[in-house]
């Protein structure tokens, strides 16, 4: 199997069984719940109800734009972290075919329009980081740090109360 590496512009060649093992290891290590049924159809009916009951956020003549006609559960791929011991994966999830994808995009646009937030502490990409660092006066006693967040939002409960 050939996969893109997590960092850099390189490819990784590995046996399919090893790739599957890395995916399953990630799922087990993060305590995901697995199912044999595709939840997309039942979730699609809930999304349709929300869209049809919307009185103000979605105009009646545009409701059809936000319904995904052939929804499926999101799919996953793994990018191999070649720079880490044991080369774990970084999951990449494709949400485009999920039932609420178009609705989530609409809400994201509306929130950004209503409450624009500055990117004061965020970087758009590597070029943005380099530009900001070039324009920053750095004294010899300063220390630069790179944080690798492994489990963001670890305190959010998995089950609802």
Topology diagram in text:
Blueprint: E1 2-4, E2 11-13, H1 16-29, H2 40-53, E3 75-80, E4 89-94, H3 101-114, H4 126-134
Antiparallel strand pairs: 1-2, 3-4
Order of helices and strands: EEHHEEHH
Unreliable parts: none
- Total beta strands: 4
How far is it from the N-terminal to the C-terminal residue, by CA? 42 Å
Provide the domain count. 2
- General shape: flat
Strand order of the largest sheet: 1-2
Largest sheet: 2 strands, antiparallel
Rg from alpha-carbon coordinates: 21 Å
Helix content: 25-40%
Q: Strand percentage, roughly?
A: 5-15%
Number of H- or I-type helical stretches: 4
Structural class: alpha+beta
Report the mean per-residue pLDDT as an integer.
Answer: 84
Account of the protein in words:
This protein is of the alpha+beta class and 161 residues long. 32% of the residues lie in helices and 11% in strands. The protein has four helices and four strands. The strands form two sheets. It has a two-stranded antiparallel ribbon.
List keywords for this structure.
two-stranded antiparallel sheet; alpha+beta; 161 residues; 4 helices; 2 domains
Tell me briefly what this model is:
The protein is α+β, with helices and mostly antiparallel strands and 161 residues long. The protein has 4 helices and 4 strands; from the N terminus they run E-E-H-H-E-E-H-H.
């Amino acid at each position: 199997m050939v996969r893109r590496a997590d960092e850099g512009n390189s490819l990784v060649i590995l046996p399919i069984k090893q790739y599957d093992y890395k995916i399953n290891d990630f799922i087990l290590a993060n305590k995901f719940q697995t199912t044999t049924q595709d939840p997309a159809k039942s979730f699609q009916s809930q999304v349709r109800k929300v869209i049809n009951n919307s009185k103000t956020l979605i105009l009646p003549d545009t409701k059809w734009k936000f319904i995904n006609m052939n929804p499926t559960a999101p799919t996953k791929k793994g990018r191999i972290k070649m720079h880490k011991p044991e080369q774990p994966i970084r999951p990449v999830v494709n949400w485009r075919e999920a039932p609420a994808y178009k609705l989530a995009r609409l809400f994201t646009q509306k929130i950004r329009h209503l409450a624009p937030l500055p990117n004061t502490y965020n970087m758009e990409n590597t070029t943005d980081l380099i530009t900001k660092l070039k324009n920053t006066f750095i004294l010899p006693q300063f220390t630069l740090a790179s944080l690798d967040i492994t489990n963001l939002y670890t305190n959010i409960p998995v089950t609802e109360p």
